[in-house]
Write a structure and sequence with these properties.
- The relative contact order is 0.24.
- With 294 residues, this protein is of the alpha+beta class.
- The longest helix is centred in the middle third of the chain and has 9 residues, at 167-175.
- The chain is globular.
- It has helices at 12-16, 76-79, 101-104, 167-175, 179-182, 279-286; strands spanning 30-31, 38-44, 58-66, 71-74, 84-88, 119-126, 144-148, 184-189, 207-212, 224-229, 246-249, 255-262, 269-275.
- The protein has a single domain (9-286), classed as Thrombin, subunit H (Beta Barrel).
Length: 294
């Protein structure tokens, strides 16, 4: 469900600069009708005015979480360099997707994805310059905010909740020695199921799966939450298009982190999500005058 960085460790620093937003939950995925405040985000750019026929304004898609009637939290690499787009809150945004729809641009003329219906937005913000340094260890600044042009209330009447500062550390400490088995998270988003052997570009469904906390050679840092992304013990993870989607503490609406990147081109191995349980990040998200790093 997310944009992912794919590179060997030696080439990773070069790869990060080339990271681009994209894409669902891998393995053991369930259709997500629970988190109706998780949105599929479509971003637009200005097409080439000289193209004939006129150019396609579609830029990329990501996932995000509505935390108030007008504010969505997502990944910073999703909002970087773009301001306009649409948010779709239906579980399946493209069940009748056709590459021939909308004059050959592709889409679902029933739902309107990705050019009609939904809720429009024209303002986005970035927390900082994205992917500075080695991403698994340094602060990637990978959080963004989208402001809807008009309020939206999900059918459940609920919204995603911001965490307390230090919530992940508190959960790990409370779990003690069995933290890897007991600290669980639920990831939700609209990305691909996998890339093996080839991606399914038509998938535009909100899916969810449970992930487990892992450490290993790249432990949890002050900036990134590392969770497993493999099918054993009913686990699942994220993939292209899940970028910006929420990583909830299991059984809650509390967002621990937003999907950020992965180290494997087939969406296997580990998932890295950007922690928002930091006071500086929380202050920036909730500040109506938040600075925009873009």
């Amino acid at each position: 469900m997310r944009t992912r960085l794919v590179a060997a460790a030696a080439a990773l620093l070069a790869a990060v600069a080339l990271a681009t937003p994209a894409g669902a939950i891998t393995y053991n995925a369930q259709k997500d009708f629970v988190h109706d405040y998780v949105a599929l985000l479509v971003f637009y750019t200005d097409p080439d005015p000289n193209s004939v026929p006129p150019g396609d304004p579609f830029s990329h898609r990501c996932s995000g979480t509505l935390i108030s009637p007008t504010l969505i939290v997502t990944a910073g690499h999703c909002t970087e360099g773009v301001d306009e787009g649409r948010a779709y809150f239906v579980q399946a945004a493209g069940p009748n997707y056709s590459p021939n729809s909308f004059g050959g641009w592709g889409g679902d003329e029933t739902t309107g994805y990705p050019y009609e219906n939904g809720v429009t937005f024209s303002h986005t913000w970035n927390f900082g310059e994205i992917f500075v340094g080695f991403p698994s260890q340094k602060d990637t600044m990978d959080v963004g905010v989208v402001e809807l042009d008009s309020p939206y209330i999900p059918p459940s009447g609920q919204f995603g909740l911001l965490p307390d500062a230090g919530a992940i550390d508190a959960a790990v400490a409370a779990a003690g020695a069995n933290g890897k088995q007991t600290v669980r998270f639920v990831t939700s988003g609209y990305g691909l199921l996998d890339q093996d052997p080839v991606p399914n570009p038509g998938l535009r469904e909100r899916l969810m799966a449970v992930g487990y906390l892992i450490n290993g050679t790249s432990p949890i840092t002050a900036f990134n939450l590392k969770t497993t992304n493999n099918p054993s013990k009913d686990k699942g993870g994220s993939c292209n298009g899940d970028s910006g989607g929420p990583v909830f503490f299991e059984g809650t609406r509390v967002i621990a982190a937003v999907v950020s990147f992965g180290m494997n081109g087939q969406c296997k191995g580990q998932d890295y999500s950007y922690r928002i349980d930091r006071q500086a990040v929380l202050d920036w998200i909730t500040d109506p005058d938040r600075p925009d790093a873009s």
